[in-house]
Amino acid sequence: MTAPWWNALAVLPSLLLSPLLLGVIGKTKALVAGRKGAPLLQPYMDLLRLLGKGAVYSRTATWVFRAAPAVSLAAILLAGFMLPAGPLAPPLAFPGDLVLFAYLLALSRFAVIAGAMDTGSAFEGMGASREAAFSAFAEPAFFLVLGVLAWEEKSLSLGAILGGADVLSWSAQIPPLALAAAALFLILLAENSRIPVDDPTTHLELTMIHEVMVLDHSGPDLAFILYGSALKLWLFSVVLVSMLMPAGGPPWASMALFLGGMAGVAVLVGLVESAMARLRLVRVPQLLGLAAVLAGLAALLLMAGGVP
Amino acid sequence: MNGAALALAAPASLLLGALLSLACGRRSGAAAWIALVAASFAAVAGITSAMAALSSGAGWSLETAWSLPWATFSVGMDGLSAFFLAFILALAVPAAAYGKGYLAHEGGSAWTSASWAFFQILVASMAVVVLARDGVLFLIAWEGMSVASFFLVIHDHRRREVRSDALVYLVATHLGAAALMAMFGLWGRGAGSLAFAALQGAPLSRTVAWVLFLLALAGFGSKAGLAPFHVWLPKAHPAAPSHVSALMSGVMIKMGIYGLMRFILLAGVPPAGWGYTLLGMGALSAVGGVLYALAQHDLKRLLAYHSVENVGIITMGLGAGLLARTAGMETVALAALCGALLHVLNHGLFKSLLFYSGGAAAHAAGTRDMERLGGLLRRMPVTGAAFLAGAAAICALPPFNGFVSEWLIYSGLFGGALRGAGTVSAVLFVTLPVLALVGGLALACFAKASGVVFLGEPRSEEAARCKEVSPWMTLPMAATALACAGVGLAAPWAVRLVAPAARALAGLSRAAAWGSPVGTGALSAVVIAGWMLVILTGVLLGLRRLLLRGKTVSEAPTWGCGYAAPTARMQYTASSFAQPLLAPLARLMRPSLRKKRPKGIFPERASFSSHYDDPADRGIFDPAVRLLERLAGALRPLQQGRLQVYLLYVLLTLVALLAWEVLT
Q1: What's the whole-model pTM score?
Q2: Which of A14, B178, B218, B661 has the most crowded Cβ, counting Cβ within 10 A?
Q3: Is residue B238 within 8 Å of residue B245, measured between CB atoms?
Q4: Which residue positions in chain B have pLDDT lower than 70?
Q5: Using 50, 70 and 90 to split pLDDT, how confident is the model at A307?
Q6: Domain around B449
Q7: What domain count does chain B have?
């Protein structure tokens, strides 16, 4: 807990740059499709516009609906306190913080689901049900990935795990590392409602998952939700980039590499979204099962390799 | 006054209260008052005694002669007893207050007064169970607990299904008690006495130790509701009045956990196999419990299946702790065992809270069927808020108490997986995703329960007419909800309650301090994070208010994606909510589905219903009961109903006995 004060700076990139990830994904998809696309900073403009608006509430909704966006965003913000940003160590680090990280994301999900159920809308109930189901299927895979990373670094703190893990020290462990990274990428797509699990840009409510849950939110509430989603995508990308990034070197190079990696993840997500269609909903559990199998294989390789 | 007198004053005052309640006859309001006063007095006395023992670290024991054969009246106090005694008595008080409000509508009847007497007998016998230091006294108290709770379950005895569910409970609890009697008998034969002190010193061979362990597992596991001994639990708990469901689900089933822990303390250093067995049974209960909870439409039955799940989580923590202990990782063991013990307290708190609020909702609407409820938060604001708090706590969401205990168990699993070697490490590693899956499924289940019952629009007339319940019922909810938040936000203090017992189970001396990976430092960091979360949420809510100031904030119907005439029946139901989770598992859970699809251009009425049979019922107990009936049927020709035949039986028996006497 006794971290130097400048570690607090580690949350700044996530706070400032997370909407940019969405911009990069949008731009990538536009370029692949041969369109010009919206400006990179479009997500920021959307957020600003929403923050300046009033709000419309459903007559069915109670205080749960009104509190949900704030609770959800608070949980994601706090989760961000536990992740490093390139050379900057996280401000909140203690053994076992990786469990807190996962359960804070669960809290944010619970708040949004409760808000959706509060409107009494059939569509939002449908989205809530799917979100709850797919997240439950993603949870074991995510913990397996965390377990693999913790095992390799012999630490229970995300800051130490992600700050220390890198390709060079893993050189003997390339296959488990690659498997864990692949699993994490699948979880990233599912947890952040990207294609092939969910299509954030579809116009048909029946096929949506995350977007349909927030149909009734408006104004600052919707801004909180959208900003929270952007932050969550940023957090998952940080885990993915940090586990692959070489540690050490001058701080500016490390920061540049980190930010480049983040942009790379966004481009990769954009490419996947351009190349694939959404999976049928009944196939999603299989995709998440695949993620769990990949992570399990990584664990197996690691344990077999660990025996002297 | 010394600790022993104070501790014994608790069950004594409750038993006295039970007699007085019985004497009340038709004035059951007075009986309720007596129960409340007796429970409060017992709580003050018992908790004072327990806290004194916990803070000084000194236990005591008291032994007097008794007129029963093979027995002495022997009671004692140590860390484990102190924690459980305080836990039982603290939760009995809100249950009594809630019950006073819950049973108020029944008016005065001798049966209700008797129910209050049984309530006090149940609490008193649980207190004696944790204080007993002699096998006979333990079994007497255990039996008192089972019988008293049976009469509490059968309270609504005019309903046929209540009678049959209560009978299942009576049979199950006595099968468990039979296993315990066999265990004490076998153990006492070797030790020469049934006093715990003698049992503790008795040398056990490997085989005998395993037989004793399996008997204890069957006996205590069936009380705790561990799969596959859980079949009585989802039947008995919903049938009982809600304050009894809360006391049984929150407190009584933990007596099984207490029994297992006491057994381990007495049996000496546990072999690794016990740890593996407990871990496996815990995982089976946790996953099975939460899956079948998801499949329920009955609110109280859903809550009962979650008790199976949570007892599973506690047992996983216990198993992991014992495994870590055998592998020589005492500090890891300490984390897992502290987690298991703290989860006992936490589950007692949030399960009481959920049964109070869920029971109030079902009571107000007159149905436990979730598909007929909805929108109750608007109509019952305190009850609804209490249920949401309980839901967050049981899903282990920070900053509530459930997170702290599950975090400790996770720390034990991670710590053991990382520092251990070989099989222990691999098994603990594999347990991680299991616990994570249980967490995800529990979240889905409580999103369903709280969403369908309390949020949205009412799905029936009854639900629309619901009114908030009396302060007798809302105050216990508020108190337990605050306790859930309090334990979460003051965790290091709560861990101090369980640390002595966890140290003893981990085989650590009192002097041994906390070590990594779960030093008190990490625990306070969890608490600091909890406070940060509360503050951040407050700041964001303030920011939202600031942003909306001076803007147009209006109300409109829920957006129906263009459809103009939505009705409450179009809302997502509990069954539809669980469908995406259960459909992939249909082959495993084998639901019986009845569908009538809409046909043709102008379809007739269509319908759909689903029902999930418990696999332990279907696979183990139903066939066993059928076999028993067949065997009993084979004996039927003996019963001729003619006096001469029975006289012949008597004569034959006498001759046979005489022959045996002569020949041997």
Answers
A1: 0.94
A2: A14
A3: yes
A4: 1, 509-520
A5: very low
A6: 270-534
A7: 3
